[in-house]
Amino acid sequence: MHIAAKSQHDTTADTIIDAASEVFADKGYEGARVDELARAAGVNKATLYYQIGDKEAVYHAVITRVLARTADEVCAAVAEVDECEEKIRRFINIFARNAGNMRYAAPIMLREVASGGRNLPESAIAEMGRLLGALGEALREGERSGLFRPVNEFMVHMMIVGSLMLYSANEPIRRRNAERHPEIYNEQHFISNEEAGEQVTDLVLAAIANNKQ
Amino acid sequence: MHIAAKSQHDTTADTIIDAASEVFADKGYEGARVDELARAAGVNKATLYYQIGDKEAVYHAVITRVLARTADEVCAAVAEVDECEEKIRRFINIFARNAGNMRYAAPIMLREVASGGRNLPESAIAEMGRLLGALGEALREGERSGLFRPVNEFMVHMMIVGSLMLYSANEPIRRRNAERHPEIYNEQHFISNEEAGEQVTDLVLAAIANNKQ
Amino acid sequence: MHIAAKSQHDTTADTIIDAASEVFADKGYEGARVDELARAAGVNKATLYYQIGDKEAVYHAVITRVLARTADEVCAAVAEVDECEEKIRRFINIFARNAGNMRYAAPIMLREVASGGRNLPESAIAEMGRLLGALGEALREGERSGLFRPVNEFMVHMMIVGSLMLYSANEPIRRRNAERHPEIYNEQHFISNEEAGEQVTDLVLAAIANNKQ
Amino acid sequence: MHIAAKSQHDTTADTIIDAASEVFADKGYEGARVDELARAAGVNKATLYYQIGDKEAVYHAVITRVLARTADEVCAAVAEVDECEEKIRRFINIFARNAGNMRYAAPIMLREVASGGRNLPESAIAEMGRLLGALGEALREGERSGLFRPVNEFMVHMMIVGSLMLYSANEPIRRRNAERHPEIYNEQHFISNEEAGEQVTDLVLAAIANNKQ
DNA sequence: TATGAATGAGTGTTCATTCAT
DNA sequence: GATGAATGAACACTCATTCAT
User: Fold this and answer.
1) Residue C195 sits in a domain of what CATH number?
2) Most C-beta atoms within 10 A of its C-beta, which of A192, B161, D34, D178?
3) Which residues in C lie closer than 8 A to residue D180 (C-beta atoms)?
4) Would you say the C-alpha torsion B118, B122, B124, B126 has a positive or negative sign?
5) Considering the domain boundaries, does residue D60 fall inside one?
6) d(CA D11, CA D8)
7) How does pLDDT run along chain D (213 residues), one tens digit per residue?
8) Distance (Å) from the alpha carbon of A14 to chain B's nearest alpha carbon
């Protein structure tokens, strides 16, 4: 079994988008500098323009890719299992990862939400629909089977995504806060993202469980 | 003859900070322009510098005020009642409001989280501690009384704050999405912020309820 | 009679437009650099933007002023006399000057003509109408009085303006040509602009004279 | 076996120069983009460099060709007839055409004049001499024969060339002006280039006619 | 205290040119 | 010969900040 010759002949455009994902995640659209995007990708600034276009085009490429990958990962994971509770577990698990693609998705989406989606391209909209759909299906299935109680699907979505994106993204703030106020912070605040996912799973499943016999 | 009690204690600095709250909430730190801050406050740009200082100083003033007010509102509301379930209700209720001070708090904090709190002043840290404390106390009290089960306090905090800030801030995105994909969106996605608060209350209380008799 | 305290308190904007007239006349719109415009005016580039606007706005200000002055000079000179032949003389005399305002008018207008007036602002159009009107009136008057024969006014206009703008503007080329081909060039090619004006006057008056007794 | 007489002697370089003539005529040297020159010629940008050289080399090739053709056309037309008045007619007729080669000659030369011939290559100088010579000969011949009066040859040259280049090139401006100020413009302003040539012929011959018996 | 004007240091973008294939 | 890709050097324009009044 070969480890995959992946990213062996990544095109220049791919290299740029990869590097830009990191920069935009870190600095935001307005805070990122085109010079920085180019430097991070190891290409000349003019090459960036030649390959992709202006700053906005690079951003769109980044957000499109990040959201598409997120939706792909979620849909694939959810589709792998039949049981609706397991679907929820997997859905949450994807969002709990603060590595790879997800490392960029959280900060980018938080900022997009904050600015009313001013820079969200059309393509992004569709991907968000896929995410919503994957969760909604699981919830409706569980409701039909009597496992879950009827709830506002979208609010459950907000809860999962909101809590996990917030938790993973605010790590630097937590660390700073803990330094200043060690009396308030304890090990509860510094569980791994995987553990955070498990906690959220536990809370969410309890929240939607159908306790009526 | 008194000069009129006009602008009683709305100093120029206050006017500037109020206007800046709106601009920073809308555009973010990097996206806001000093010209815009001055124009929004109806003062000359040099006056802004004279009264408060540079862009960063204005931002710090804004975030300090917004967080202080949020913590004040939460603490006051929670302190008014004794019952721990009611404390939770009130805590959530504050965050569910997307008006007044809260209108600025959500986008500003989402962006701060996204950027690792790069621009958070020291003062902000303390206010966040007060918020955490108010919720934690209620949870611990409920746990002691057997009403709530033991949970990761911080994760519950993330859930409440994350879901409500996400819901209230992403309204423009939902509207756009709904226009493009009417088949996915329904009235569940467009409940008022107050109703959203009630949904979250319901879900959270179910999530932490101690069902073991 | 005081020599006029003119240009004593020229505004910054005026200084910029004056300097820009020279640069645009010399280099053309595309050839001029904004840095150069600022340097020529002795102001910071940002001041130029603050006072007037972008490159196009500066160009419009220049062309508007240059054409307005040209039309003013022509109309004033023509209005001073009653006799139609004298009006023609004066009209030509203005265009023959390659100094002051006229030094800029010729190259700027030649380039505008060459590019189909792509950058001509609306205001310029009106000034060109005033010029046309001044000459046309004189020609029609002369025709009525039997002094001039009926001719295509506009073509006479083209002749006067074309020959004089061409002559005054192509001096550097003539000088270069004369250096390379001294056998072709003689003193006829290097008369002063005033003399050139007289030659054109002589030729034009002969061209339109009514020789029929 | 010959590879077919395809594109008989329209080499790639020729194609490029033809296309470049149009672009430079339209936009000027500074306004033209190398990308545009290549696209207009239907070749790759690097091919343009390989075939001709840098932007300046392309421009020189264009101006050299355009001036050479103009001089060729003028000299051939003038040489075809003996009578000096007819020579003048033909000289003017060439310049009156706003088609083919002449379509490029007028705007290119107007801009060159405006910029003091900054980009004129040596070769261009010689061609201009040929033009001057052709007209001068006709004028001197007419003067000797008593048909024309003594005039400044060069000024007559300026008149002919100036009026015709100005008229043909400023058509777009006339059209725009006429739209805005229909009261000033009439059919006199919109005669064909051929008619304009006849008008100029009429005026010039009247201007230089020897009326002394 | 308030402000119009001025400015140094960026900041996104373009362009002529070169290079590897 | 021909071309897609790459790039250094400009270039137009912006922005946070300061200063004279």
Assistant:
1) 1.10.357.10
2) B161
3) 122, 125-126
4) positive
5) no
6) 8
7) 333 434 455 788 999 999 999 999 999 999 999 999 999 999 999 999 999 999 999 999 999 999 999 999 999 999 999 999 999 999 999 999 888 889 999 999 999 999 999 888 888 888 988 999 999 999 999 999 999 999 999 999 999 999 999 999 999 999 988 888 888 888 888 999 999 999 999 999 999 999 875
8) 24
